[in-house]
Structures are given as C-alpha cells and as structure tokens.
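Researcher: I'm preparing a figure for a lab meeting and need a structural model of a single chain. I don't have an experimental structure, so a prediction will have to do for now. The sequence is pasted below. Please return the structure as tokens so I can convert it later.
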Amino acid sequence: MNVPSKTSQLKRWQLPIGIAISFVFLWIALRGIHFDDVWLSLRGADYGWLLPVFLAYFVTVGLRAWRWQVLIKPIKTVPWWHLCGIVALGYLGNSIYPFRIGELLRVFLLNQWEEVPVSGGLATLLVERVFDGISVLVLVFGALLLVPLPVPEMQNLVMMTSVLFFGLLVIFLGMAFLPKQALVLVNVVAGWLPGKVGKPLIAVAGSFLAGLAALRSPLSVLILLISSVLIWVFEAAKFWFVMQAFPFDVGMVVVALTLGITNLASILPSAPGFVGTFDLPMIAMLKLYGVQDGLATAYTLVLHTTLWLSATVFGLVYMLYAGVRWADLGRAGQVK
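Model: Understood. Here is the structure written out token by token.
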C-alpha cells in the first residue's frame, strides 16, 4: 500500500501557495492602474530593442556555466558546454515550475548526467546564490551612494538581505577552510537529532563540504567574484535595453537599484516565472522615481515577458537538441 509521504504532500501545495502569493503581489501592483495608458505605452514601444536582451541571455548562461564549472572542479571536471545546457534547463524550470524549482533541477541533472553527488551540487548552488546576492547588494549599495531609497521598508529589505548573504559567506568560508572541524560539528548536531535525520546528515556532509572546496583557492574566489559581477552587469543591461524601447530614462543608477530590489524580492516563493514578486517591486520602484503608472506597468510587462520567453524558448530548444524528455526531468528529480 502506498502512503503519500510528507514530501509529496508539500509538493502538492507548492503550486497553490505560489499562485496565491503571486495573486496578492499582482493585485497590489495593479491597483489603480489605468489600462488604457498601459495599452498606449505598449503600442508606442520600439520592440527592436528586445533583440539585445535575447543576446544578453546567452552571455549570462555562458557566464553562469563558467562560474559553476569553477565551483564543481574540486569534485569533477565538467565540460563548460554541458553546464551551459544544464543552466538553460534550470532557467526553463524556473519559468514553468513554482518556488524556483529550476535551481534544484540543475543539481538533479548534474547528478544524473555527470554523476556529481547531489549534496555536493547543492553546496555549489548555495555558494552561487551567496555570490549572486552579494553582487546584487554591491549594485544596490553603489546606486544608493548616488540615489537614495525614499521608502524605509525597502531600506530594511536591503539591510536584512545584507546580513543574510554576508553571514552565509562567512559560514561557507569557515566550512571550506575548516572541513574537519565542520565534520565534527555535524556529528555533534547529528547526535542530537533523531536517527532518521542524523544518519543521512552525516552521510551527505562530506560531499557537501567537497562542494565548498573551491572557496579555499584565492584564484577560484577571484574568478567567482569577477564572473558574478559580469553576470549582473549583463542582467542590468537587459533592463536598460528594454527601457530604450519606451519614452523614459531613469538612468543607469536607478536601473541598477531597481534590478537589485527586484531580484531581492524575487527570493520570495511565487507562481512559475516569478509572477507578482517580480512585477510589484519593479512597478513600485519606477513610480518612486517619477515614471507614470501606465508606462511603468507597460515596461514591466514587456521586460518580464521578454525574460520569461528567453528562458522558456531557448530552454525548450535545448531540450529538443539534447533529446531530453519531460519524463527525463521527472526522473532527475528522484535521484537519491
């Protein structure tokens, strides 16, 4: 007799919870918006500026694959091209699944295709997110030197996420440089936990620490920093390119600040494609810096749609090229 596990029950709730959160964010974002103004802004946009956004997508995929290759190297040398494909499928997963499932999908595919332990792949993923968070915060702090944030709640968001990401970086560096001590601590913690939790924790600890090994190399850390900054420079460029399609210009500083706030807010769970959690902070930030409601909404709609199409279409193209089926992705999620 098959009894549904707690994990499967939680998975069933992921989509409804994500949709509910996205609905609330969209409702707040679109209150009081005059959709006639949105339509007029959409009709007047110069959509030729969207082409560079699609090109920037390929650059960011390549840069993310390069950074990931550096992180994985202490475990296994994986060809850059293979990692580009997995990154593209991860983008696709984030576009069609809720709760950023595409990130975990990358770990599962890395395990299935390259035999990298799931716990080690997960460690590299967490390090990526920390470097992403720090790079975004660098953009935000740099922008704040020139343009202040007029809303205290957003200042609080920046401060809380700063503590989170810099705190995680310190923890990961400590674990990377003191792996033996980290294993001792894991064993102590596991001893306090029930056997069903403690034993698996000990079993995966070694592979997880192996996924942090790149942080012990100054050259690797330098490459991680450079690649992360480049990634977010090109992410900011996407925002700027779409802005050229519309009759407003808030400047690159505000673009960087908006990019940072929007991506920090996108950490929250949501429906597939970050619906709502992307749109609300984007529209709110543009309005704060003087962009008319309908124009801000039209810009956000075009930007979000373009980013979603980039991830979805090119992810599907790679699926066809590599002969990947939906069933293969499903089996990848069952890797132990």
